[in-house]
Write a structure and sequence with these properties.
The protein is α+β, with helices and mostly antiparallel strands. The chain folds into two domains: 3-71, Phosphorylase Kinase, domain 1 (2-Layer Sandwich), CATH 3.30.200; 76-246, Orthogonal Bundle (Transferase(Phosphotransferase), domain 1). The protein has helices spanning 36-49, 78-81, 89-108, 159-162, 170-185, 194-198, 217-223, 235-246, and strands at residues 3-11, 14-21, 24-31, 60-64, 67-71, 76-77, 111-112, 121-124, 127-130, 137-138. The protein has a five-stranded antiparallel β-sheet with strand order 1-2-3-5-4, with helices on one face. A three-stranded antiparallel β-sheet has the order 6-8-9. It starts with a strand and ends in a 14-residue tail after the last helix.
Length: 260
Amino acid sequence: MLMTVRVLSDHGPVRVELARWQDRLVVVKRLRGFNPVFSQRLEREAAVVSKLRHDNIVPLLEVRDGSLVYAYCPGVSLEEALERGPLRPRRSVRIIVDVLAALAYAHQQGVIHLDVKPGNILVKGESALITDFGFAKDLGLTAITAQDMLLGTPSYMAPEQFQGVRTDHRSDVYGAGAVLYHMLTGAPPYGSQVVRFLAGDDRVPLAPLTGAAEPYAAVVQRALARDPDARFADAAEMREAVLAVSAPPVEARGGVPEQA
């Protein structure tokens, strides 16, 4: 039996609760009332996440009476962590490396997340897990409706996704790039002008990375390329590029490795 401990979020038709189940804490995602569209979306989310088993993806434990029961993972959302400003590059890198590992695995299973953003990333220290596959596309399943085509969060949404094209895992590469940019600068790319950029206006400037974040500028710029063909081929390639920048030299002066 599920016993609600407290409500974590209650927005729109979906309610998320911290609950106790089988002597453990869990997170329950349920509908607040009957909604055929979101009921279908929860069913799809269950079908997608049930096939994913990865250390950096919050696991689905069970589906009960139309509600999704997820494992409770202590920590805070990256969105909350960013309320205090940008993160140190070292911590940003460790978080995005975990996110990219999860995305690379999901893509291998034919799943595109399509809503990679700070609110869907849980962090504990310098480790991270990705959650909420509510907008995900499973290439092995039939698309739900044309309504899905414009779902997403503009600040982290790839331009082709904004235009209604949701068929490529490189949209997740763009989302990961936007998250990395936000962690390093304290704000999402393009700020209040993001819709102008997504609509095709290349005059909208992207504020440059500075200081300790500057070495990651090339990685971020490639991930955020308007043309998917100009981005990293996949999440695994982007992960390797991030690690290549952050890796200290084999030996610094004095025989002591430099800190990333």
